[in-house]
Amino acid sequence: MDVVELHNQTIENVVRLVNEVGPDQWTAPTPCTDWNVRQLVNHIVTEERWTVPLMEGKSIADVGDSLDGDLLGEEPVAAATDAARAAQAAAGEPISTVHLSYGDEEAPEYLRQLSADYLVHGWDLAAAIGADPMLDRELVDEVATWFAEREKLYRDSGAIADRVEGFSDPADTLIGAFGRDPHWKP
């Protein structure tokens, strides 16, 4: 699958889920124990907002702290949708290298990292609000194949929790690989 298509499809699923968040669900817990629904969506929006300047060739220093804090404002659904559309447009920029916190990275690798983040956090959001995560098999396979070579690095760096084992469904296996229990309930 084309990496831009992968990126954009995983974002599209997040947009669908954000539109399903009920007014009383923004403070609900999520599988990410440090975040409620609003904080999780803000994290996703922050990632989307970073995509634009990074895909334009800017560095973290160039952006500074302009994307810190609450990016959702009074209308979180509109803010999330707008950020998603901007990130989708930026993903198609003809750039070969992005400047990340750990150093320079090839743009397709960065987009795969984002795709994995959006796919898994989309599942987090769906679990938190009781929605169908709609984990498309092709997207799951793409992310799982990419992640297989990086799982140890992610775990060793503390980016993800210990693997949760015991699943045969590919989506559940991937969610477990990212340290989440696919049967989590609020």
Describe the structure.
- By secondary structure, this protein is mainly alpha-helical.
- The chain has a single domain (3-139), classed as Four Helix Bundle (Hemerythrin (Met), subunit A).
- It has 8 helices and 2 strands; from the N terminus they run ααααββαααα.
- Strands 1-2 form a two-stranded antiparallel ribbon.
- A hairpin with a 2-residue loop joins strand 1 (97-100) and strand 2.
- Helix 1 packs antiparallel against helix 4 (76-91).
- The chain is globular, with a radius of gyration of 16 Å.
- The protein starts with a helix and ends in a 9-residue tail after the last helix.
- The model has no long low-confidence stretch (mean pLDDT 96).
Helices and strands, with pairings:
Blueprint: H1 3-18, H2 37-55, H3 60-63, H4 76-91, E1 97-100, E2 103-106, H5 107-129, H6 137-148, H7 151-156, H8 170-177
Antiparallel strand pairs: 1-2
Helix pairs in contact: 1-4, 1-5, 2-4, 2-5, 5-6
Rounded mean pLDDT score: 96
**How many helices?**
8
Low-pLDDT runs of 5+ residues are none
What's the gyration radius in Å? 16 Å
> Helices and strands, in N-to-C order?
HHHHEEHHHH
Please name the CATH architecture: Up-down Bundle
Cα separation of the termini: 34 Å
CATH H-level homologous superfamily name: dinb family like domain
Strand order of the largest sheet: 1-2
List the domain count as a whole number.
1
The share of residues in helices is 55-70%
